[in-house]
Automatic annotation (TrEMBL):
This is Thioredoxin. The lineage of its organism: Bacteria, Bacillati, Actinomycetota, Actinomycetes, Micromonosporales. GO terms for molecular function: protein-disulfide reductase activity. Residues 11-76 form the Thioredoxin domain. Keywords: Redox-active center. GO terms for cellular component: cytosol. Gene3D superfamilies: Glutaredoxin. SUPFAM superfamilies: Thioredoxin-like. One of its GO terms (biological process) is cell redox homeostasis. Belongs to the thioredoxin family.
Amino acid sequence: MPQETGTTPLCVAVSRSLAELAGEFGDRLRIVTLNTDENPATTRAYQVMSMPTLLVFRDGEVVGSTVGARPKSNLRLSFARHLEPWRP
């Protein structure tokens, strides 16, 4: 789940990449954005200090995170890794 204000150039760029990746991954991945200005309690709960921050959840638990803008190819690879069969 990306944490963003939606106004910074990096947030806008990441949001664009995420929209494209959502189409590529289809039903295998759900991408949700959260505006930190409108959701300060959630921002604090996940200790988000910089934007953009991407949190990856599996069964309600954070299993990965990325802080800062990344190329779409890096995000694609990261998401694909998280979609591999989970091994506890």
